Structure formats: structure tokens, C-alpha cells
Amino acid sequence: xxxxxxxxxxxxxxxxxxxxxxxxxxxxxxxxxxxxxxxxxxxxxxxxxxxxxxxxxxxxxxxxxxxxxxxxxxxxxxxxxxxxxxxxxxxxxxxxxxxxxxxxxxxxxxxxxxxxxxxxxxxxxxxxxxxxxxxxxxxxxxxxxxxxxxxxxxxxxxxxxxxxxxxxxxxxxxxxxxxxxxxxxxxxxxxxxxxxxxxxxxxxxxxxxxxxxxxxxxxxxxxxxxxxxxxxxxxxxxxxxxxxxxxxxxxxxxxxxxxxxxxxxxxxxxxxxxxxxxxxxxxxxxxxxxxxxxxxxxxxxxxxxxxxxxxxxxxxxxxxxxxxxxxxxxxxxxxxxxxxxxxxxxxxxxxxxxxxxxxxxxxxxxxxxxxxxxxxx
Amino acid sequence: xxxxxxxxxxxxxxxxxxxxxxxxxxxxxxxxxxxxxxxxxxxxxxxxxxxxxxxxxxxxxxxxxxxxxxxxxxxxxxxxxxxxxxxxxxxxxxxxxxxxxxxxxxxxxxxxxxxxxxxxxxxxxxxxxxxxxxxxxxxxxxxxxxxxxxxxxxxxxxxxxxxxxxxxxxxxxxxxxxxxxxxxxxxxxxxxxxxxxxxxxxxxxxxxxxxxxxxxxxxxxxxxxxxxxxxxxxxxxxxxxxxxxxxxxxxxxxxxxxxxxxxxxxxxxxxxxxxxxxxxxxxxxxxxxxxxxxxxxxxxxxxxxxxxxxxxxxxxxxxxxxxxxxxxxxxxxxxxxxxxxxxxxxxxxxxxxxxxxxxxxxxxxxxxxxxxxxxxx
Amino acid sequence: xxxxxxxxxxxxxxxxxxxxxxxxxxxxxxxxxxxxxxxxxxxxxxxxxxxxxxxxxxxxxxxxxxxxxxxxxxxxxxxxxxxxxxxxxxxxxxxxxxxxxxxxxxxxxxxxxxxxxxxxxxxxxxxxxxxxxxxxxxxxxxxxxxxxxxxxxxxxxxxxxxxxxxxxxxxxxxxxxxxxxxxxxxxxxxxxxxxxxxxxxxxxxxxxxxxxxxxxxxxxxxxxxxxxxxxxxxxxxxxxxxxxxxxxxxxxxxxxxxxxxxxxxxxxxxxxxxxxxxxxxxxxxxxxxxxxxxxxxxxxxxxxxxxxxxxxxxxxxxxxxxxxxxxxx
Amino acid sequence: xxxxxxxxxxxxxxxxxxxxxxxxxxxxxxxxxxxxxxxxxxxxxxxxxxxxxxxxxxxxxxxxxxxxxxxxxxxxxxxxxxxxxxxxxxxxxxxxxxxxxxxxxxxxxxxxxxxxxxxxxxxxxxxxxxxxxxxxxxxxxxxxxxxxxxxxxxxxxxxxxxxxxxxxxxxxxxxxxxxxxxxxxxxxxxxxxxxxxxxxxxxxxxxxxxxxxxxxxxxxxxxxxxxxxxxxxxxxxxxxxxxxxxxxxxxxxxxxxxxxxxxxxxxxxxxxxxxxxxxxxxxxxxxxxxxxxxxxxxxxxxxxxxxxxxxxxxxxxxxxxxxxxxxxx
Lengths: 377, 377, 329, 329
Ligand SMILES: Cc1ncc(C[n+]2csc(CCOP(=O)(O)OP(=O)(O)O)c2C)c(N)n1
Ligand SMILES: Cc1ncc(C[n+]2csc(CCOP(=O)(O)OP(=O)(O)O)c2C)c(N)n1
Ligand SMILES: [Mg+2]
Ligand SMILES: [Mg+2]
Fold this sequence. Notes:
The complex is a heterotetramer, with 2 copies of chain A and 2 copies of chain C. Chain A is built from 13 helices and 7 strands. By secondary structure, chain A is an alpha/beta fold. In chain A, the strands form 2 sheets. A 5-stranded parallel β-sheet of chain A has the order 1-2-3-7-6, with helices on both faces. Chain A has a two-stranded antiparallel sheet with strand order 4-5. By secondary structure, chain C is of the alpha/beta class. Helices cover 37% and strands 19% of the residues of chain C. The longest helix of chain C is centred in the N-terminal third of the chain and has 15 residues, at 6-20. Chains in contact: A-B, A-C, A-D, B-C, B-D, C-D. At the A-B interface, helix 8 of A face helix 8 of B. One thiamine diphosphate sits between chains B (117, 166-168, 196-199, 224, 226, 228-230, 295) and D (29, 58, 60, 82, 86). One magnesium ion binds at residues 196-198, 226, 228-229 of chain B.
């Protein structure tokens, strides 16, 4: 992290300079026309993934990203039961939304303000399982916080992934500010921010969307609507059906997407990205999804939802759904799946091994970095 | 004020018990069917005021209320120029909106959370010009604050008009809380709250409307859109045309009304009131209007708007407009107008005379009422 | 008498007050069906229904504003902030509105809301689930700020807070909630512990320690160690920070001549400064040694990793060490 | 050298910094075309355009959040809160976010925002346009809090704040803005006054007074009265409250043996407590008298009516009286 900071010191920015050339077109083969991504086009003969301009490699990468997230997530719960980590907050069930967005953004160029449930996003963007595990186990090398923050409070300067805090929804106006910085600087970076359904009830949501819309900022607001804010169901959080409908209040597009449909999420993410990149302003995306686990390892969800409800959603699992799709498309075999799983497991094993062996932060470091140290930014 | 407080002490409420019988129908003759108040009905042959169930007396009272507000307002500016009052914040231009709402609510039964521009509302609800003047001149007898608050920070327990503070928009969630109290108590009181266009940018707006809509609370949110938040025009405050359109985000009706059309404001106010009284929930009303004066006596509006713009709106003056209407309807003569004016002027003269002679608060009272005193509520 | 935890005491106070007065109602995030993330409101919704035990949207400013609006209407809202760390969005409502209603209206309106919030660390809550916010609220006239330490006081003070006619910020140290050794016998029925009164929980002669919340217990333990070493330490549980019981504080210092304040919040700008200042001003002649503060280090949050968290927290050993130094001055 | 008011000094600093560094930009309510309600940003939009001098919607939490987000991107935002009274909605962003970015990310991110806010009373602003909020921010590690008194320092400290790599709450006492006798000759060009250094503005031997903002000037006037009466008073302008220049404070007390702190904020829980506590702890042996605080009374806001406002405000006469008492102790 020290070196990241030094980079930052040079260009007076906390975010390292982009490593790739600016491209108005996002990841994917050249020449994919905009209309190819429009919804109506999906009815044509070519398979959906081709229409979306994705390569087989892209699909395999996305599949791996879903799996590594789930595998790591499950491992962390295991570690928690073993008493090796005090706190878990899980993304299980929401992987497709996060992997879909990760695919649509230009890592290291665009800016991301994630939230505590962004594990799959984080991994898909390129935080390594080992880095995640160092964070989860609060080790000195934890690149997100040096063990200072709770697990899942991600942040990684080299990915332009801005440090997460616990207070819900504070990232929203910050993302608007990042979008404003792009406007002032005249760059073409898109800023993405992620928040839960509960977080949209806070005034920050209103203030952020209002600000972003007034200035037509390149910001994509992604709501991962998993139906609950801890125990409070969306029906007690708001009086309307779709959070995305609130976009009307800001004169920006609001899109509802099935958050468990990876390709559809990717399509929506790409459209919002392109719109932002073209300077046409912000988009509000609501991904309808579900969390399988209790809110966190401190929660007991049996107090507020039924096993049946959870099971029902487990049947709509975004990973098996994508798996089936790949199988139907003849893009993957059962054996290949197994080998991807094995690869994910190995990566997680290795991450755990490394992180468990890594040293804890030492007490004498507690006073560091309250303010910039001599000669630092 | 002491006695009000004692009343409050008895029923454990800060608001005196209602003085009139509960009536689901608002002020106006019996038997006015709901459909008679619907917009389409205004196209029929009977004059609009009759269709709205207003009597000639009602109209005269409303006319007086417009005039007394304007007269008092102008007098206060005069006192300011004479160095007799340090601060003025004016409602001139916005009287019709306020008088229209005052007419629709049941004073002393319903609850009102006004804002600093609510002079006409305040007077129309029954605060006397003398009481206003005592407040304006920060006298010990000032019933709103005992001289502790800036002028126009109204509040009067006997009217159920809750004390205004300066921070913008804080009254909105409080009004929602008052609506919630009505729901818990099972009473039929309607809560009204008033806010400027600028105030709708603050998170409070979102949180309050969201809360009120979730619980279907009897709250009417009134936005007096006068085009500016001090110098910031609405175009820099939001990216949509109508604030009322934001009602969509809460699943509640949003109504735009010409705030300078007294009868139309009254109609809308009554509908929102009836809806609330019937338990059908909150309404957002946006009254489009204009302030003639600088934001306050500390402002200089020449920095941000043209004289032409102000003049244009002065031509749409809500008071002359109502005057013309009354004349057209043969409900008032030039002489009658003059006598109403004279009555208003006399009331203001008397208010000024009394208030100027009234004693200032004495320094020894500064420590009082930080907390409840012995034996008080 | 039944033995209760701090958490049980809080819950019992809520049950009893809601039965006593139908204007009392509870609102906050997850307080209903879930019974609160710490279970302080468990069972309330079952007995009193959804209207009086209300799950709010995630919007702290609204939680406070709604409570205030209801209070102005004669209700007695008890608003829960899930963690004291998340009370910040409500600061405007609490200090500009609740705290000022009575004063600004010259006594025409008042605002009897209780703002409950679990505070403090030592539970691996990390930077955003461990904050101590007492100084931030104790500085505003119009508010009362209560920070009990023992189950008996929790129950009696919470009841007093609910019945108080002014707004009260009621801070519950989350580490004490279920701490086994903090259990206490408390009466099942109604009783009140008045706001604004400190409590000398251990008499002593050589030095006076002032603390509250978890740090009161840690100080008490340190005091026992010192006692065993032959140094008699007086421990005062402040219980209420505003209005502060200056008399009890000054009497104690006048007796012992040495004063120590212990809190978990950051040292600089913490509430200890106010106590030290009062002692330095009003008990100057009695002081035999400098007023000593033991507090959390000046870092922007309690780190999560255990070695760092332990480094942050004042504990009986650190406090005892400071006591020895002060006694030896 | 031209003679400037405090307000002119602030404005000049903004102009110069915006010219020097294109990452500096200003945002807030009415800061653009209107030039700010106090005119601190007058002319900026004309020179730097709407993008860099931005009229925001009325939403303080967004003002702070947007500034923070832009700062994380390498910008140097100067966010204006129209009155310090209205900074409260931004408290979460300032203390949970800005103050903690560096620490929570273990130095990977930082947040160089300047949060400007006019504070203080004595201008008939009433309960909500007169607040002093310094103690509320000075208590949070990760923030710096600056409260200059003289035009020269305003300019130099604001420039330092803008160039600082951490968030700074920059508080401007609004009564000093155009106060005629506070005008001062200040250089037209670039200079810096470093954060964290107090300034002995008047040397003296009998007692030390610590103050900032308008109260520094009132204390200075009182000190001159005392001087004329034969009592030599040292006056220290704290300038920065966090990081506090303890050394200068303690040196002064060690010299005079008597300490007084003057601030306009409420006494109880005000920043004076921290200073008194430091003196009581670290200069105990040198103290010949109790540490004395002179401050606003403990009421929830400065009343509007003149007789009440005057009663609220510490003034040279009241301060001089307290000085006499302290000197005579
Ligand atoms: C401002 C604030 N209030 C309360 C909390 C406590 N809290 C943490 S997560 C959470 C629920 C969030 O729900 P949602 O936004 O839907 O996200 P999800 O966890 O379901 O993904 C709450 C209440 C918090 N962290 N911040
Ligand atoms: C929270 C807050 N921020 C800023 C201010 C300063 N201020 C007072 S009135 C005002 C503009 C309000 O505009 P609007 O809501 O449109 O009401 P209007 O005065 O136009 O009726 C501002 C910025 C304030 N009083 N409160
Ligand atoms: Mg959720
Ligand atoms: Mg306006």
C-alpha cells in the first residue's frame, strides 16, 4: 500500500493513473454496435452472449468469478465457525449482479465505491483471494485497511476501488463527487457505486442522485435489492414496488434488472456505462436479488424470514443458472465445471494458507496514519 | 404562553385539546359532495367559489387575510429601514398559497409545522398582528419565542402551530412524526408542513415522504416553490420540472398548483386534507409562486435575478388577482376594498403601537427554560 | 430478587414503561420482529403491536425527526439507534431540534424523547461499531446525557429518562450488555433512579476515580487491585454526564486530594476534559497532584484487529498503573 | 502593504489558491453568482467559471460527500457551509468519512477537503445563526480544526489548510469578518501560516489568557485595560485547536502561573475544558490559582433579542473582571 500511496503522491491523486488507453467502448470485441446491446436485439437468432459481444473467454472468466466468490464466501463462514474470524458479512446469492458490473467497467480506469457486500465485485475486479483473506483475517498485510476495519470493508487503490466504511449510504454522495471530479477534469472515467435496498431510504440517496442528475455526471448507482435491510423487508422500507422508479424524481433512467441473470445484468451495466461515458449522465439500476445468509455472522435470520423463502431463492441461484446456460450453449462440460471449481478451491486454499500464516498488525502501529506523515500525501 | 403549557401539562400533550367537534368535512357548508370539489366540476355554470362550497363571508375573510399579510409584511420592511428591527424575511408574493391552506385546515385541531416564510399562513390561522409584531420586535411578550428566535420563527401552541427553527427542512420528518402520532392515537387530525423548493433537496425531504407514505399518514407536504433558494434557481437545485413529480417515488399523489390562484390552492388543499382525513395517506403539493423581496433583509437579489423577472411576477400578484376575481364576481366594490385595506392598516398600526411600547426581555431570564422547571412538563 | 444483565434491565424498563403509559412507543431499525440487533426490544412487538414497536426504514435523521414530531404531540418516543456510530445523521435533529424546542419556544413546546444508543468498544466492532459519542452530546444544553454502568441503574435511569420532560440521550455500553460479572440483583417492579446523581460505588481515601460505562467496571477492578496493595481508592460512577453531579465529584476530590478520570473515548476533546476543568477550577486548593486522565488514544476509531483493539482499550492493568503513579505523586 | 478585513483575507486566499492549483475548487450554497451570503467567494465564479465555483443544492450532507468524493480523486475541494449552524447534517460525512479515510485505509486513501464555516454570534443571528461548533469537531482525531483571529492569519492559515493533505475544518468568526478594528496590513502575495502553532499576541507576566476568534480580540482589549491598571496579561491566540500547540500554552502558564480560557461557546463541554485539563495535568506545579474559564452561558443557543444576546456574549468588561479576580487570587 505504501507504494500506491507514493504513486498517488506524484500525481496529487489518490488513485493511480489509468493503465490502459481510454476507450469509449468497454471490454469486448471491437465493432460491437450500440444497437446490438439493445433489449429488442436479444430476440434474434444469435446467442445472447454473442450479441452482447462477449467471447467464450469472457464467459469462462465470469463463471470463474462467480465461483471464486462463492467458494471464498463459504470458506469464510467455515473459518467463522472454527473461531478463526470474528465477523462475516456475505455476498452469497448476489454474485451475478456484482460480476456483471465488474465485467462492464474498466478496471483501473473507472472508479468504484463498493459496499460491504461487494465481495464478488471485488474479486472480479482483480483483488486476489489472498488479499481478501488477509483482510478477512485482519492481518498486517491486509491491503484494504491493515486490519483496522471489519472484514468486507474493501478498498484497493490499484483498482480505483475506494475504501468502504460501515455507515450505510455515505458512499453515494462521494460517488457523485467523484463523478463531478471527472467532469471538472474532463476525463471519461465512469464512477460506480453500490448500495443495498435499505440504504436507499437514507437522505444520502436523494441528495446523491439529485446532485448527479443536475450535473449530468458519469455515475452509475447500483442498488442490490436483496429484499431486506437486516430484518426489515422492503415493504416496510418503502411504499412503491421498484426502487428504480425513484429515478423519475431525478430525471434519469431507472432500470430494474433480474440481479440473478448475469448476462442481463451485464447488458444493463454496459448500457449505463456507455451512457455515462458518452456524457449523458447517471443511471439508477436496481438489481433484484437475494442474500442466502443471515445479514452477518451476528444475525439470526430465522427471526424474520422463513426457511421456505430462502430455499425458494436458492432455487434461483445465479451461479447454477449461469452454469445451466453455459451447458445449454455447449460452452462448458461437467468436467470443465469441476476443474473450474477445483481451481477456485485451490486459490482459496492457498489464500487461506498464506493469510493464516501472515503476521498480525503490531500494537505499536496504532498511532500511524491518523494524519499524513512527514513528506507524504 | 405559561397557561398553554399548563394545559399541556394536564393532558400530557404540548398541544391544547381541540376546541371544536371532529368533522370529517372541512370548513364550508354542509353537504358539499366530494365530487363537487373535483377539478372537472369547475367547468360547470356555478361560480367557482360556490362550487368550492365557500360563502361570501369566507371570501371576504380570505381577502382580508391576504391583505393583512401584505400590509404587515410591508410595515416590517419599513421598520427595518427605520432601524427598528434587525431582520426581515418576507412572504410577499406567496400569500395565496398560505391563505388557501389556512382555509382548508381546522385551526386548533389540525397540526401545522410552518416555515419562516409562513407569515400569511400564521395570520390566517389566527395569530394576531400584535402577536406577530411582538415576535418581530423580539419583545418579552413574543408568544413564539419570547424574543429568543429571529423574526418569522413562528410557533403558537393554541393554534397547534409548532415552533419553527432556522435549519431548513427539519420540520418535514417531524411532521411525519406528528402524523404517526395521529395514527397511534387514532385521531383524525391532519398534519401540514410547509417548506421551500430549496428545502426539498435535503435528505429530510426523502426520508419524511418515504416514512409518511409507508404508514399512509395524514400529512400534507406543501412546497412553496418560489423559484429560488436564496440565489440558487430551481434549475440548479434539480433536474426535473416539477417537485411534485417526486411523489411518484413514494407512491403518493403529487399535485402542482398555481400558488397565486387562491381558489385553486384552496381546492387542492381541501382535497389533500380530505384524503388525509379519510386515512388514505399523504399528499405532496407543489405551489408555484414567487417571492418579491430579496431572500431576507440581509440579501441583495440584484446579484442573481433581474428586475424584469421580478416585475413580471408582480404582474401576476395573487392579491390583485383575487381582487379582480371578487370584482368580476360582483362580490366586492372598490370602496369595500378600500375599507378592508383601511382595516388591515389599522390592525397593523395598532400592532406596531402595542409592540413598540412592550418591554424587552430582561437579561435575567436568559437561563430559563433550558429544561422543564420544577413541577412543569 | 432476580439477577439480571444490563440488557435484561434495559428490556425490563421498556416493558414496564410501555405498560405504564400508552404514549410510550419504541422505534428504530430492526427493533420490531427482530427485537433489535442486541435484543434490547425483544418481545415488545409481540405484546404491544407493530404500531408501538416500529421498524423504521434505514434513516436515522427520520428516526429522530419522527420521534420529535410525535413527542411534540404528547407521545413519549424511545428512539433506538442501532449503534451510537450511526447516530451522526441525526445530529441535526437532536441538537438543533430536540435540545432547543423548549428554549426556542420560551417553554411553549417541549420534546420528551429518549434517544437510546449502544456505544463503546472492546467487542471487535472495529472503527464503526465501537464509537463513544458522549462528549459530542453532553456539550449541548437542552439535552441530558445518561451513561449507566450497573443493571440496577440502567433500569431505574431508563425509566427516569422516559418520564423526563426533556430529551435524553441514553447511552448503553454494549460490552456491558451481557457481561457476566456485571449481572446484578434488581427489583422486578417499578423504581426510579433520578437523573443527575453520581454514585460513590467504592469509598476510598487516597485518590478519586471518575468513570462510567465499561470503564467504571474496569476502574473498579483496578481499584480493588490497588486496595490489595494498600492504596485506598474511591470510585465514583458518574451515571449522568449532563446534568453532571458536580457536588459529588468535588466532595470526593476534596476528600482525597487526587483525581483521575477514565474513559474509553479519545483523550483529546473527550468528556474527561470537562471533569478535569471543573476540578481544576473548583477544587484547586484541595488538589495534591495533577488531575490525571486515562483514555483511548487519539486515533480515528477503534481498530478491528485484536492486538490493535487491545492496545486501544484502557483496561484494569493500565488503569491500576496510572493509579499507582497518581497515588505516588 | 494593503490593509484588509478578515473577509478580504479569506477571499484573497481563495483566489490565490485557485490560481495556483487547478484542483482547488469551491462548492456550497450561494457561493457562485451570489458570491456567498457573506461575500467570501465574491468574484470567484467570474474568474474560475461555474465548474470550479459551484452552487450546490441545499443539502449539506451532499456538499461534504461530494467534496470528499472529489478529494479522493485528487481534487482540493473547499466546501462552504453557509453558517456553522448548518454543518450538522454533514457531521456523518465529516467525522465518519473525511476524518477516517486515511486511518481506515491504512494510508491508501486520504481526504484533503477544507470545510469552511462562519461561526459565532454577537451579530443578532439568534439561536441558529450564532453557533460555535469548534468543540464538536476538535474532538475527532483525523480532523484539523482552525480558528484564526487576525486577517494575516486567516489568509495564511486558509492557504495552509487547502494545501494540507488531511481534512481541515476552517472556522471563521463571522463577527470578525468586517470588524473595522480587526483590519490588518497583509502581504498581497503568497505566504503560509503553518497549522498547529499558537501565537503569543501580547506578552505578559501575571496571567495567561487563551482564546481564538472574536474572543481573542475581546480578551486582548480586556488585557489592555488590565495593563492600564498595572496587571500584565499575556494573551495567546490559539489559531489552531487541533492539533493544539500545547507547548506554547504550557510555556505561557509556566511563566505566569495563572491561566484563563475565553470562548464564546457554552461553558460546559466547550473546548475550554480540554485546555484547562491539559494545564491542570501538565502545568500543575506551576499553577498559583485555579484555571479559570470565561464562556457563554449554558443555554441552547444565543437568543436574538439584544438584551439577551448581550447577556450571552463574553465581552471585554466581563473578561476584564474575571482577569482581576484571577490576578488577585
Ligand atoms: C447509517 C447506518 N445505519 C445503520 C447501520 C446498521 N446496518 C448495517 S447494514 C444495515 C442494513 C442494510 O440493508 P441494505 O442497505 O438493504 O443492505 P444489505 O445488507 O441488505 O445488502 C444496517 C441497518 C449502518 N451500518 N449505517
Ligand atoms: C440546513 C440549512 N442550510 C442552509 C440554510 C441557509 N438558508 C436559509 S434559507 C435558505 C434557502 C431556502 O430556500 P427555499 O427552501 O427555496 O425557501 P425560500 O426561502 O425560497 O422560501 C438557505 C440556504 C439553512 N437555514 N438551513
Ligand atoms: Mg438489503
Ligand atoms: Mg425558494
